[in-house]
Amino acid sequence: MGARQHDMNGYPRPGPWRIPRSIWALGFVSMLMDISSEMIHALLPVYLVGTLGISTLAVGFIEGIAESTASIIKVFSGALSDWLGRRKLLAAIGYGLAALTKPVFPLAQSVGWILAARFVDRVGKGIRGAPRDALIADLVPLGMSGAAFGLRQSLDTTGAYLGPLLAIALMWLGRDDIPLVFWVAVLPAVGAFALIALGVREAPRRTTARPARMPLARAELARLPARYWWVVAVAGVFTLARFSEAFLVLRAQELGLALMWMPLVLVLMNVVYALAAYPFGRLADRVDRGALLAAGFGVLVLADLVLALPGGLPGLAVGVMLWGLHMGMTQGLLAALIADAAPGSLRGTAFGMFNLVCGVTLLLASVLAGELWQRIGPPATFLAGATFTALALLGLLVLLHRRHLAGR
Questions:
Q1: SS3 at position 216
Q2: Domains (ranges, CATH) in the chain?
Q3: If we measure between CA atoms, which residue out of 30, 36, 42 comes closest to residue 267?
């Protein structure tokens, strides 16, 4: 028999649609940490206000500091992973820091402890995000990046809805014992760290790749091709239309959904998101990616229009499912496009810059959405989202016309 073929990273080439085990492991790592985080986040605002007695302004301050920290650190951790060539190490440190913070939440007796825990937790998220995605890009066989990132996104989003559902079940069983939920959330976080430490291997550097020099140096950023910056620009405009999912919950409240059912809005969205991400990721490896991304943008326009119209709770359900569908069609695909456009030795930097741009524009989008909601009304928020999505679609069409997007 002839020698088994190897992929561009030196690993044995898998059969059709067979994703390497380390990528599966990274997907389950993301899922476990998301279960842990969402179990806490689903109840943390209530715990802060109702148990510790702090104001809603303080809650907003804590969340703002936490998310901003994660977005900024992603840039540096991605570049550092290029420089060191140790993506798994940085990802494992990030997951380890997040796991260490989980016991602080049930033990905290003051807002200072919560602020410190959230800050360190988001530092961990910032450290792990870009190196993890760059590691997936390094490990994935040629022509399978869509399936790989779709799988990771699907498993990650599964954790995003299993966490709140588990929290609801534990609150019922424990008679509203919030610290009990927080203690149980420690277990999947520890499991995530153990899995990345033991079940994921580092990708060897290709000898032909030029190593990154000083992280984030102008000369290194200049090595990122025009196609990469076009994808980042389109994603940035698109993210202006993708304001916080909290506005889906507010729309449900405005339409009269009972308080106890509010968490199901995000559960419904994330179930559709999780179910769609992997199939569309696989499809992206077989069809024109530009056309598929354009279709995802079109689904968001439709979702915004449905949510803007007075369709009652049935219309809300349709709009929320369409929102989840567009996430499944676009988020993994955008990550795959970044992975394909960036040089192998700069993938960490590429994902870090991409996450920073999307993080900043998501913050701007949520502020704008809140302002429109307050001054004009809910329909204006969703109509503005449809407008920004149309602009992103226009930019994507320009990108396709200039042949910066490959057909596969």
A1: coil
A2: 18-200 (1.20.1250.20), 219-408 (1.20.1250.20)
A3: 42
- Cα–Cα distances in angstroms (integers) from residue 322 to residues 78, 157, 300, in the given order: 32, 15, 7
Query: Could you report the per-residue pLDDT of 69-125, keeping only the tens digit for each?
Result: 676 777 777 777 777 777 888 889 999 999 999 999 888 877 778 878 888 888 888
Banded model confidence at residue 16, pLDDT cuts 50, 70, 90: very low
Bridge partner residues of 12 (DSSP): 6
**Residue 304 contacts residue 243 (beta carbons within 8 Å):** no
Report d(CA 168, CA 182) in Å as an integer. 12
> Percent helix, strand, coil in the chain (nearest 5)?
80, 0, 20
116: exposed, middle or buried (Cβ count in 10 Å: 0-12, 13-18, 19+): middle
Buried b (16+ CB within 10 A) or exposed e, 55-74: eeebbeebeeebbebbbbbb
pTM over 0.85: no
Judge contact between 204 and 325, C-beta under 8 A: no
Instruction: Give the whole-angstrom CA distance, residue 257 versus residue 30.
Output: 31
Q: How many CB atoms lie within 10 A of CB 125?
A: 23
Distance CA 33, CA 102 (A): 10
Q: Report d(CA 12, CA 279) in Å as an integer.
A: 24
Taking a C-beta distance cutoff of 8 angstroms, is the pair 195, 25 a contact?
yes
Burial 201-229 (b: 16+ CB within 10 A, else e): ebbeeeeeeeebeebbeeebeebbeebbb
Question: CA 15 to CA 85: how far, in whole Å?
Answer: 28
